[in-house]
Design goal:
By secondary structure, the protein is α/β, with parallel strands linked by helices. The chain contains 8 helices and 12 strands. Helix 3 links the parallel strand 3 and strand 4. Helix 2 runs parallel beside helix 3.
Length: about 230
Amino acid sequence: MRILIIEDDRSISKLVLQRLNEEGYAADSCPDGETGLEYAETTPYDCILLDLMLPKKTGLEVLERLRHDGNNAYILIMTALGSVEDRVKGLDLGADDYLVKPFSLDELMARIRALKRRSADNSRSRILSLDDLEVDTVSRAVKRSGKPVELTSREYALLEYLMRNAGTVLTRTQIDEHVWDYSFYTESNIVDVYIRYLRNKIDRGFKNSLIHTVRGTGYVMRKDVDI
């Protein structure tokens, strides 16, 4: 899950960014509405944490523009403006949730997990499965042939993205943009390194390989052989 923080208070932004990274999310941050809009329009974020009182463009302006342009990322407003009128306006413009400052990071993480569960509900199932591999997108539990598979937070993020797109060939650029944030160099081989980590845990010791290389393109999750 890739998350964008649009927040001009650098201390809040730093704390939220650190916690998101600790939880295994790929997260980026920017300090004003204009830059935030540029980020959101050029990167496929799953969730946007949006302050309302921003320089250059207000949070409501950013929200309205994103929804007008068809951006379907979950948007959670976090602001000191806590009146009912402010909440109603934000929700009417398309926000998915509202968190009033000051808030605890634990509550913020719970709200993000709730949005993720909503995504799973919209997909009709929280369980992603392929052959004998099962991924619980809420608890993050992974099993192959009924046996638990222990993954790091980043390995899990990569696996979930591959599973959600099972059968679709994903380029290294697509994977990089969704699973990692801008702190990683796009020219690095980070995707290939983590694919190797996943294969060691998901495919090694099993008759059927599920992670396949599409030479010259990228990777795909499916039951048949490499191409």
